Amino acid sequence: MILKFRMLSDENDNFVRDFEVDPMMKLSEFHTFILASIGYDDCMASFFTADEEWQRVQEFTLMDMGDTGYEGEDAPMPMEKITLAEIIVSNYKRLIYLFDIFAERAFYIELVGSSEPNPALEYPRVAFENAPVPDQYDPDAVDSNAGSIFDEMMGDFGSFDGDSDGDDEW
Length: 170
What we know:
By secondary structure, the protein is an alpha+beta fold. It has 3 helices and 8 strands. Strands 5-4-3-6-7-1-2-8 form an 8-stranded mixed sheet, covered by helices on one side.
């Protein structure tokens, strides 16, 4: 089985990357793959499982934090000790990939499908990409030509010409 994840950024509405990966891939390997696929330098990073409202649940750190002084489900775990399959089996289909810990910059990753592996392809792989990657070090470095997929789609509808009294009754 191959898992398909979609990665988005809140810094560029057009940025999309779809990854197809083996479910037995460790989070540390997924981290390395993501960095290589988007051309980022190696960095401190964390993954978080996320609920349906994108609230952080469990943290997975690149480095083993050792004894954090507390134990339990909320204690950070090393990325190298968990696979993508274990996260999915735990009923989490969303991940937050925090690549800039100090500025709280992140990518949002969601499981969007699974399929049988194609023997003609090598995994992990980037299955789809759109728009430039946000600058790793400068969140204000935005491609002015990137635009917004939302704006482009809504532009076809023009402005709303309804009455302005706010009465929703017919």
